[in-house]
Task: inverse folding
DNA sequence: TATGAATGAGGATTCATTCAT
DNA sequence: CATGAATGAATCCTCATTCAT
């Protein structure tokens, strides 16, 4: 039914990011998004099943692009260490360049209901998998610890990056996120304990 | 105005955790919470300013208890490493013992609006500070890396723990969270890179 | 936002008069008005800001029409005395022909809150002004006493007419209001004192 | 059941006038009146049947006092003209001395429901009767027009006085009400028409 | 008499979705 | 394909009144 392509499809998604970033999730009515996208309310329903579908599609397309961009970058370097570094760099870089996206994905969209959050979880699969492949590569190359669950390592890496970005957004993006690339890389790589 | 103590105050908070865990945030009407607490709807408003206030109070009291319990435990051991280990252990332990609390704090309450989320952020201050003190102690004892921002270390540690618990809840708490204490401790302590 | 014209706008106002006259101000729920107007509850809010706005708009349109009708009539005669007589006649006539309007404007709408009553006051401005012009005309023609504040004369005339109609409504409109036109005219014109 | 006398009965009535004058009818909760009267909420119900009963009793006692004061004054003079003058003077004087009473009786209490307004009407009976007696006296003495309905004359006099006071209250009592005694007397006595 | 904590019925308003044009 | 007027279900909160103490 819902035609999930086309100029207006994109326009609606763009409008949704903008409206949600500006007004907050709970104050972003379909009418507001339609007005921002310069279409009629009813038109939304030619491209999306319902309001939730806008959010899920939004998150899905954006996270897909996100993972693609990160992958392109880490494919350009060879060692696990360099790939990890580029992952962190790109993760922060993308959000630093698109504040609205940061606000929406880190804060607002998490206010959605259980079902949406589940679907959103799926959208992260690709990115999670990317990190896991990086970890596997590092372990295989003998550069990362083996014997530790790969999923756990991925969770740790993702948890650190996600929390760091969320904190930055909550602090109104007042500081330069990219300055954290080096120290975060160091912590992920070396942990917090000092070796004598 | 709102009397934030007493038997019914506690009963309402307990009911709120239960109802929200079972029905989800957006399907937890005041009437439902009142019925579960065995009080009249209006009674809720003798103890809370409004519905949001229930959530904020809920998160605040629970997180305060949380931080207190963790602190009691880490005070019993001496070295930074042991304290870190106990922190992780207690963080997981508390949620492992109270699934409803885990669901509500990790998933449901995050669906609340911006203002609530802000107040909720404040409730975490005490716990954040606790972790920072632990980090400062470790640095001072020469056991943790110095030269790295303490807040950043705290963010990393909290981010890992939070993401781990969230993941576990999203996976319907099907596995034993406590089995992750050791490997997570290892990762936080040593990072992911293998030293030759 | 609220589109204050159109078929449904009128239908809602008509319904409001009927419902309020029948049920009393405090027992006239939006749902009741909507049902009487044969529209959905939500439709009300496409035409009115809120419930109060229905009342204010109701009073405003009706009083505007009221003043217009009265003006048309007194414009047809020439002397101040005839104009005054026609004013009294029309004031009573309009209410005598529309009992619901009388009930609503004289009794029910006065139960609304302070803000509404203020707005309602403004709606009477046009009618008040009409009476004042009549008085000024009479003074200028040398037919009415000069040296007395025009506003005061208007207040007196309006006060008499208003009280007379209110009394009639309170007595359940059991007698013929139009029979009072002559004696009221006489009293306003001559006062109560008998000149020897 | 309700004991309609005693120190607290009076205290509650006094509190009601004050609270309603300050907060408006619709924002004068029983709790607020109780607090102002320094009694418990429940105590109110030992002296009054229900909230409406407070208002009715309030209006009744105050209007009874009102009529008594006016009567005392007009009894001191002999001619109908002097009595009429004193009536106007006292009517304005009492409200000029008690602004809260003016606000409550002219504006706020009229927002109450149909039943209360009916009871309130009864409280005015005594005052209405007083005016009618004055009119009858004037007619009998040959000073006022005969042949005109006494009730109508009373209605006219009361309507003028009431409208004048209401207007004054609506204008925030910014001018001196007593300055209107003379011109209003003149208008009531002589009407608006100038005799050649 | 007096208290005040507890009750619970009642209603304005929002907003995702539909469907006639 | 596109429109936007119309729909109506769903819910938080207030406050007059009660009654155990």
Result:
């Amino acid at each position: 039914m819902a035609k999930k392509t086309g100029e207006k499809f994109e326009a609606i998604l763009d409008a949704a990011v903008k409206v949600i970033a500006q007004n907050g999730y709970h104050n972003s009515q379909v009418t507001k998004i339609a007005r921002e996208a310069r279409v009629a309310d009813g038109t939304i329903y030619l491209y999306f099943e319902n309001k939730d579908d806008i959010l899920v599609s939004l998150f899905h397309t954006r996270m897909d692009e996100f993972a693609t961009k990160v992958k392109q970058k880490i494919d350009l370097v060879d060692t696990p260490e360099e790939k990890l570094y580029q992952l962190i760099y790109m993760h922060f870089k993308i959000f630093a360049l698109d504040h609205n996206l940061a606000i929406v994905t880190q804060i607002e969209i998490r206010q959605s209901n259980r079902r949406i959050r589940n679907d959103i979880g799926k959208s992260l699969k690709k990115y999670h998998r990317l990190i896991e492949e990086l970890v596997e590569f590092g372990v295989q190359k003998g550069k990362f610890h083996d014997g530790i669950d790969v999923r756990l390592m991925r969770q740790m890496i993702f948890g650190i990056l996600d929390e760091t970005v969320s904190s930055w957004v909550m602090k109104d993006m007042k500081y330069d996120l990219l300055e954290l690339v080096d120290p975060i890389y160091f912590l992920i790589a070396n942990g917090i304990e000092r070796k004598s």
